[in-house]
User: Which sequence fits this backbone?
């Protein structure tokens, strides 16, 4: 479905590598299955030509990888950024988390990524081969029939409510530049807000009790780049590495959402990687929605150096007792 | 305060807060219709503030204001006297029982081709 | 593990009346870390304090909890007690069982139970306390005064007379400020120059004072006692040390058509100039915007005639770095622009002037040599109208003017009116006022004299419109006491323009991290009790930069600011509050969140090298708190996502321990 | 069997400069409020980390209230403005998770407002008592 083809990316990566602009390429590498794509660092042409992947499963946001990779790797790094990734990229620059000089950023236009779980729900298990395109062709070990699925029907949840096709940071752009989209991303939050408190409690109780504290959400989150997480810090008073009971998950997820509030770019990686399919982005979006309505529209990462609502104030701000009038009920 | 309801009504309708007035008189110094007026803009504001509205309703001043808004433009306190004048005019227009006619005046006005329905509704209206 | 002593005070019957103090002492004995527990009638008494001291020594206590009145009452007392017994004073915690327990609860069992819980919370906190030592920082014994008007001059003289070095930075070529432009001063009518210029000479000759004229503050770093300031000395193309101020260059300069800002543009000066005869330093300055030599290399007359050889067309702006212990802001004020007040025809007629222009018109050194003449035709004005409150006391939404009262206009207008009537009895002088505000010694008497002895017409009302007609100005105004609208065909209209802080104040406040109000006046640390200090330690306020002020008030505030500076510079070292934030560098991300919420600018960043386990080094950006600047609010600790930032004395784990103890 | 009257446990974070002094003033004036209100002194309301609030609930508090200087009067000039934003966000989130709104509150109490302090605590305790015990946020292991 992607308009930009793999060949364009490979050609770009190889030429930048060969002309010495970069020494490393941060890209997507083929995994065991066609849909199992892992972020990887490439350093030579042959490897790129053989194993570099760009298709509808390349959801991983590379921005966070730059924090560690710019420290460890010698020479400049080429990174491919989808529009939503560029917001994280800028936010990390705002927080001085990596050296911009060590990165060559290439923006790649994106038509939305697909969700393997949704494909599996249609095609069933035992997928042996997937060919991406407008119509995704799925083969399974159980049948000779090739199942065709419209890519638009199996988009990742975050791509269904994509907020921007515009790249806010890059050195070079492949494909066409898009626009910020007036998305419906807050609809789900509004739906929850419209529920009674009991219904909301029941909803979150069910969702958060699924949490196994694998920390995948934290580890993937481009806003969670702390050298040492507060939950690993013995002096924080809330140190705990594994879930002990239902409250711990609530505490963990509320605190995590609070810590990334104003810094979260709504890239949706947390929900993508959650093995329990908890809609964690709905916590972050609630904060974004509240901040937009109380303190004015703010998109984290839209520009480098901007001041997030929680490290800012006006003397006329809404009182905490009045926030409930802000939209719920 | 006498006439508190009418005062509050006029203040609400005009959207003007007369207590902001610091009585500098710039409105009166500005007013091009000053000579025509019995009550001048600064007095007008003060009289509304103190609920002394009856004299205003009866005064010709009410209709001498040109609504040129010079007072509104120049008032350092943002009081907007012209809007108060306008609100008092409205109050005069809307005053109950302050019709230009009474039911007794109706028969004299009836002409041959006056529709029945109009005559009935005229009595209904002016007897109220 | 700590060895904690618990001391429960009866406070006579104040506590013991509703709290079973014996039971409290007994219950707390079994808390973790507690090795000693006692109760006594008055812990704050000498005997009570001795009890604590003895117990500290006898039981080798490492921390103590005093269950007594509010820490706001006796925390300092018990800290001193602990220190006297050799215990770090920050190992003391107070459980407030009087104001927040015995006094608000009537029932003995309820009070006792709550007292025990409050005691447990305090014990839990002390268990995590660490000894704290206040930081010390040296004090650079030199002050910087920004602004060389009467405020800056007075502050500088007072500080220098106390024996400390002072530098004055003044953006104009000379010190003197607004007061140098004034003619006479109210309420005594002595001439401004006669009382100001001797002070200017004192400043120029004082061995402890340096003047950086034609200079601006470019950058400020550091903190109280240790400011690093960069001063930009603008190129004046004249070597200050050589110029004798003879004025030969000025008289020979062919470029005559430069608006003279000292006379508010009412006459012209040369491209090389000395602002006025008594300027300090009396040094010529070349105006680069007008000098033909600097613009196109065609002239050089001044260099030819300068016998001292002081002219230097190649001079460049110079940056000077200097250290200071204290900074005084004395940036002063300006009249607001009259451009938006179309109704007064200020831009249409030369004969509508501001009060400051009127000062120059009546000043013997002014453009008319002190004769009151109309700017348009040089005729003697016969009818003069003064308008007060132009742009003062406006509504908050009014974009033309200011919300505040400018305070000085009533008095100077009375002065102008009185002097005019005195000097030219044939003139007809009318003052339009809203209120006459004359609080101050001999002020109201002065105003009454203007009315009663000098025959100035004071009319309560406001001018609505000024229309130039022929060589007259038709002033249409209200007289609200007579309930009349009046028209006066005046020859001269004088507007008492509101005053506002100098435009340089806002960027300066940013450099100093000093706070300002919405009108750009500097805010004081406390409006009543600390009126000459900024909330930023080491920054002091002098004169109209803090709010509208007349000369007597400015001078007294300048002296007050100086005394605060002297008090600071007299110290060799500053001891700080030890309960300050600190960042754990191993955990800090360098993300800048903490810096953004710090109200004091106490947090900076540095790149630090870390040795990694694999023997490589890594350079990482980390936050560093300056303990001398940090006031210990703890705002940064919450902004920090990783918990790297913590507050000494109120650490995360200490507060959580208190929460746990209370909620158990 | 005698049923013990339910009294909610309330943790009150008070800033040192205004609200803690306000609480002292309530004491000086002998103004009653429930003994279940326990005050923790912090230098400024902005020192209160949302973690502390959650921790209190976890350990069995039924209500948490923050008291600070009135906006504009902060001893540290701007601390309470940050408190206001942070707690607005936190409270809205707790509401979103289905936690009862009346369990959390921010109140501005000056050093002169002893009466307001006592009245606030009485009112808050009453509202929390009406909700009953905090079951949605507590950690059962922490209950005796």
Assistant:
């Amino acid at each position: 479905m992607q308009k930009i083809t793999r060949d364009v990316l490979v050609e770009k990566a190889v030429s930048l590598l060969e002309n010495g602009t970069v020494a490393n390429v941060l890209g997507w590498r083929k995994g065991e299955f066609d849909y199992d794509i892992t972020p990887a660092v490439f350093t030579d042409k042959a490897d790129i030509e053989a194993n570099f992947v760009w298709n509808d499963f390349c959801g991983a946001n590379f921005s966070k990888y730059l924090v560690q990779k710019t420290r460890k790797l010698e020479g400049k790094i080429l990174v491919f950024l989808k529009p939503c990734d560029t917001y994280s990229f800028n936010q990390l620059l705002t927080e001085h988390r990596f050296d911009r000089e060590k990165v060559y950023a290439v923006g790649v236009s994106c038509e939305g990524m697909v969700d393997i779980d949704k494909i599996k729900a249609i095609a069933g298990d035992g997928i042996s081969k997937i060919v991406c395109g407008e119509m995704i062709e799925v083969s399974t070990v159980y049948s000779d029939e090739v199942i065709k699925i419209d890519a638009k029907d199996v988009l990742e949840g975050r791509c269904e409510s994509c907020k921007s096709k515009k790249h806010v940071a890059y050195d070079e752009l492949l494909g066409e530049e898009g626009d910020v989209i007036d998305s419906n991303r807050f609809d789900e939050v509004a739906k929850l807000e419209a529920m009674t408190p009991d219904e909301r409690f029941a909803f979150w109780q069910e969702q958060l009790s699924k949490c196994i504290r694998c920390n995948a959400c934290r580890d993937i989150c481009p806003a969670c780049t702390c050298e040492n997480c507060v939950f690993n810090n013995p002096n924080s008073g809330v140190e705990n590495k594994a879930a002990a009971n239902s409250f711990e998950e609530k505490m963990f997820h509320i605190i995590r959402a609070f810590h990334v509030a104003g810094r979260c770019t709504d890239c949706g990686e947390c929900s993508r990687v959650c093995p329990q399919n908890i809609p964690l982005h709905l916590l972050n979006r609630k904060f974004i929605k509240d901040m937009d309505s109380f303190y004015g529209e703010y998109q984290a990462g839209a520009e480098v150096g901007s001041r997030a609502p929680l490290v800012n104030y006006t003397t006329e701000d809404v009182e905490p007792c009045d926030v409930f009038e802000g939209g719920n009920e | 305060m006498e006439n508190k309801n009418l005062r509050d009504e006029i203040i609400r309708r005009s959207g003007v807060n007369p207590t902001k007035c610091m009585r500098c008189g710039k409105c009166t110094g500005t007013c091009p219709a000053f000579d025509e007026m019995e009550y001048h803009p600064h007095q007008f504001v003060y009289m509304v503030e103190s609920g002394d509205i009856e004299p205003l309703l009866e005064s010709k001043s009410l209709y001498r204001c040109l609504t040129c808004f010079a007072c509104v433009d120049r008032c350092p306190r943002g009081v907007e006297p012209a809007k108060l004048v306008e609100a008092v005019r409205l109050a005069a227009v809307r005053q109950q029982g302050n019709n230009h006619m009474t039911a007794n005046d109706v028969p004299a006005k009836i002409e041959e081709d006056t529709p029945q329905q109009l005559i009935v509704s005229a009595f209904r209206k002016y007897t109220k | 593990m700590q060895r904690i002593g618990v001391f429960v005070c009866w406070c006579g019957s104040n506590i013991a009346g509703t709290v079973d103090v014996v039971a409290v002492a007994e219950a707390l004995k079994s808390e973790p870390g507690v090795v000693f527990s006692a109760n006594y009638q008055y812990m704050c008494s000498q005997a009570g304090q001795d009890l604590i001291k003895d117990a500290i020594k006898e039981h080798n206590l490492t921390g103590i909890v005093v269950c007594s009145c509010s820490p706001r009452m006796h925390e300092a007392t018990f800290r001193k007690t602990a220190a006297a017994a050799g215990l770090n004073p920050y190992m003391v915690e107070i459980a407030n069982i009087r104001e927040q327990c015995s006094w608000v609860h009537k029932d003995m069992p309820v009070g006792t139970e709550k007292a025990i819980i409050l005691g447990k919370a305090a014990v839990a906190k002390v268990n995590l306390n660490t000894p704290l030592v206040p930081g010390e920082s040296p004090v650079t014994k030199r002050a910087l005064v920004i602004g060389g008007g009467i405020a800056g001059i007075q502050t500088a003289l007072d500080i220098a007379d106390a024996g400390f070095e002072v530098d004055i930075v003044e953006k104009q070529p000379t010190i003197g400020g607004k007061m140098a432009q004034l003619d006479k001063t109210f309420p005594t009518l002595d001439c401004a120059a006669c009382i100001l210029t001797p002070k200017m000479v004192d400043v120029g000759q004082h061995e402890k004072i340096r003047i950086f004229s034609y200079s601006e503050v470019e950058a400020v770093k550091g903190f109280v006692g240790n400011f690093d300031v960069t001063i930009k000395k603008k190129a004046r193309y004249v070597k200050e040390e050589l110029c004798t101020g003879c004025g030969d260059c000025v008289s020979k300069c062919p470029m005559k058509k430069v608006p003279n800002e000292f006379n508010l543009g009412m006459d012209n000066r040369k491209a090389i100039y000395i602002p006025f005869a008594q300027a300090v330093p009396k040094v010529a300055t070349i105006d680069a915007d007008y000098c033909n030599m600097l613009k196109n290399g065609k002239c050089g007359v001044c260099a030819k005639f300068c016998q001292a050889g002081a002219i230097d067309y190649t001079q460049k702006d110079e940056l000077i770095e200097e250290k200071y212990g204290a900074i005084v802001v004395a940036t002063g004020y300006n009249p607001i622009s009259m451009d938006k007040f179309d109704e007064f025809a200020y831009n249409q007629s030369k004969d509508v002037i501001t009060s400051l222009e009127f000062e120059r018109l009546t000043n013997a050194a002014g453009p008319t040599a002190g004769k009151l003449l109309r700017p348009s035709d040089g005729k003697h004005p016969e009818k003069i109208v003064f308008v007060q409150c132009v742009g003062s006391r406006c509504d908050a939404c009014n974009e033309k003017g200011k919300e505040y009262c400018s305070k000085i206009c009533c008095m100077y207008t009375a002065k102008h009116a009185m002097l005019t009537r005195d000097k030219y009895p044939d003139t007809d002088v009318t003052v339009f006022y809203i209120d006459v505000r004359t609080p101050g010694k001999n002020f109201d008497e002065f105003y009454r004299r203007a009315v009663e002895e000098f025959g100035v017409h004071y009319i309560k009302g406001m001018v609505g419109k000024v229309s130039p007609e022929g060589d007259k100005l038709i002033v249409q105004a209200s007289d609200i006491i007579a309930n009349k609208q009046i028209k006066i065909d005046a020859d001269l209209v004088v507007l008492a323009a509101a005053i506002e802080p100098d435009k340089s104040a806002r960027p300066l406040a940013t450099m100093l991290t000093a706070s300002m109000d919405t009108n750009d006046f500097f805010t004081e640390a406390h409006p009543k009790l600390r009126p000459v200090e900024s909330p930023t330690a080491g920054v002091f306020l002098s004169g109209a930069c803090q709010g509208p002020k007349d000369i007597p008030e400015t001078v007294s505030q300048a002296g007050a600011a100086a005394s605060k500076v002297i008090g600071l510079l007299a110290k060799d070292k500053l001891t700080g509050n030890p309960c300050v934030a600190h960042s754990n560098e191993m955990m800090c991300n360098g993300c800048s969140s903490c810096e953004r919420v710090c109200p004091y600018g106490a947090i900076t960043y540095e790149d630090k090298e870390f040795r990694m386990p694999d023997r490589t080094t890594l350079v990482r950006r980390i936050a560093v708190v300056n303990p001398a600047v940090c006031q210990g609010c703890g705002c940064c600790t919450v902004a920090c996502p990783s918990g790297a930032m913590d507050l000494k004395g109120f650490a995360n784990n200490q507060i959580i321990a208190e929460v746990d103890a209370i909620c158990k | 069997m005698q049923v013990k009257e339910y009294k909610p446990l309330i943790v009150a974070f008070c800033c040192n400069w205004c609200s803690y002094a306000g609480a002292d003033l309530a004491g000086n004036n002998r103004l009653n409020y429930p003994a279940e209100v326990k005050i923790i002194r912090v230098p400024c309301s902005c020192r209160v980390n949302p973690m502390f609030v959650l921790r209190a609930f976890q350990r069995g508090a039924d209500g948490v209230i923050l008291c600070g200087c009135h906006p504009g009067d902060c001893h540290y000039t701007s601390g309470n403005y940050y408190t206001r934003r942070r707690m607005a966000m936190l409270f809205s989130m707790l509401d979103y998770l289905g936690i009862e709104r009346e369990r959390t509150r921010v109140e501005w109490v000056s050093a002169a407002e002893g009466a307001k302090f006592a009245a606030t605590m009485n009112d808050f305790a009453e509202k929390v008592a009406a909700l009953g015990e905090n079951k949605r946020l507590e950690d059962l292991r922490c209950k005796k």
Summary: Residues 6-114+162-174 of chain A form one domain. The radius of gyration of chain A is 21 Å. Residues 218 and 229 of chain A are 9 Å apart (CA to CA).
